[in-house]
Design a protein that fits this description.
globular; single chain; two-stranded antiparallel ribbon; twelve-stranded antiparallel sheet; mainly beta; about 10% helix; Porin
């Protein structure tokens, strides 16, 4: 089931609650891919967002997500320009994820800048080899076209954890919108894996993503991502992420806490 089909299969489950069934092609080991979990929470909250663009998503990945899941959104506060919502995702094993999602109207301001230039990398058309060859990588990665653009290669024993990737949904029907962007943004492997010398397990624990524009648009679905790990100790890595559209305009920044089992 591709991304468009999976979103279309989400059904009301009483009131504002939404139900979705995770198919095997979206799994990462025993849990669903984190970007999909976040996207399903955003999909549920959007119905309560009063038509406002999403500004930020903060999510904790509490437990393994699989099978049929229930997303229950709630308005925490609705003001003149903003709506704060929460979404609790549950399944047979209890709470699976908890999200705080903020929506906000655009406002007139004396400030208007974006000091976030993209990394100097080759154009996506100049990169032919995908990051994961067919049958390699986690199962969910087969839903994305990901190409290594710069920084340090995975499992290269690098002294720094910095990786840049071109990526897009393989599903040609995917729209340029916040839900699809959130589903894509978590697709890169953690930057700390560039310092690995052999395969090792990792797991996202928390994720904060900020949307930098209401106009989420790009050419031919391509976005550029850069992930940089600043620390990794005691089995936990903290990394920063940034995303740009194909024209080099920033669309998202974020931070992630990752459990490292290596």
């Amino acid at each position: 089931m591709n991304f468009t089909e999976l979103l279309a299969s989400v059904v009301p489950a009483g009131g504002d609650t939404r139900a979705a069934t995770i198919t095997e092609n979206w799994m990462q080991g025993r849990t669903a891919y984190g970007g999909l979990t976040a996207a399903l929470c955003l999909e549920a909250a959007t119905h309560l967002g009063a038509g406002l663009p999403v500004r930020a998503v903060q999510i904790a990945f509490v437990g393994p997500v699989n099978g049929t899941v229930i997303c229950k959104p709630e308005v925490l506060r609705q003001g003149k320009n903003t709506v704060f919502t929460s979404v609790r995702m549950t399944g047979e094993d209890g709470v699976l994820a908890e999200a705080i999602i903020t929506f906000g109207a655009p406002r007139d301001s004396t400030l208007g800048f974006a000091h976030l230039p993209p990394p100097d990398v080759p154009a996506v058309e100049a990169i032919e080899r995908p990051l994961h060859r067919s049958g390699q990588g986690p199962t969910f990665a087969q839903n994305f076209d990901i190409r290594f653009a710069g920084g340090n290669a995975l499992m290269s024993g690098a002294s720094e954890a910095d990786i840049s990737l071109w990526m897009r949904h393989k599903d040609p029907a995917t729209r340029d919108d916040a839900i699809a962007l959130l589903a894509l943004a978590d697709a890169p492997p953690p930057a700390a894996m560039a310092m690995f010398t052999a395969p090792g397990r990792i797991s996202s624990m928390t994720w904060m993503a900020e949307f930098l524009t209401e106009n989420i648009a790009t050419e031919d679905r391509w976005f550029l991502a850069r992930h940089t790990a600043q620390t990794s100790r005691n089995g936990y890595s903290s990394q920063a992420m940034s995303m740009w559209n194909k024209a080099g305009a920033p669309v998202m920044i974020g931070r992630q806490t990752i459990a490292v089992f290596a």
